[in-house]
Amino acid sequence: MALIDALKWRYATKKMNGQAVPQEKVDYILEAAKLAPSSSGLQPYKIFVITNKELKDKIRTVSFDQSQVTDASHVLVWAAWDGYSLEKISAVFDRTIAERGIPANAMDEYKQRLWGMYEPLGQEWHANHAAKQAYISFGVAIAAAAEQQVDATPMEGFIPAEVDKLLGLSELGLKSVLVLPIGYRDDANDWLVNLKKVRTPQDEFITEIK
């Protein structure tokens, strides 16, 4: 399915039917999310893939009782770093150096310059910046799901501190940012399924500066 057609097909599914998504489709969505761009290539987030029924039930209770959480095949949670550090940045750059087979000190100057910018901005800025990178991956995953004709419901409607507790994220230096149940729409019971997709008209949405 062409991307534009896939994006026209998708919508924020309000009711899912519990059908399992084939593993190859889940893998495709996760690979797309992994390949998403991020600032300086740091990928300051992780994705948790949840199929455990008991855990999904608990997440639903702290997600304003949204049924998609329990009716989905998989629930994906994006958890961003709670802050940057020289050690975290160095670990990413060290992996890049090893994978590319370049000299060990090849990225030292850039690494020090980057940390020199980030360090004084404080942990709140760090956490917000990391979360913004997670949003990019999240958007790519939604598009990939649509391409695979897998339904998805983007969610900010949950209590992050409670999801953090359920997944033990604080101990990992992470904070939950976004939740994405994926599965298949329940055509008979989803009030949104047949409603027209509405977006801002092109002439209002796009401003050309020549």
TrEMBL record:
TM ranges are none
Write out the similarity annotation.
Belongs to the nitroreductase family.
Obligatory cofactor(s):
FMN
| Coiled-coil parts of chain | none
Keywords recorded for this protein, A-Z: Flavoprotein, FMN, Oxidoreductase
Where do the Nitroreductase domain residues begin and end? 7-184
PANTHER family from the entry?
NAD(P)H NITROREDUCTASE YDGI-RELATED (PTHR43673), NITROREDUCTASE (PTHR43673:SF2)
Protein name as it appears in the record:
Nitroreductase family protein
Q: Does the keyword RNA-binding apply?
A: no
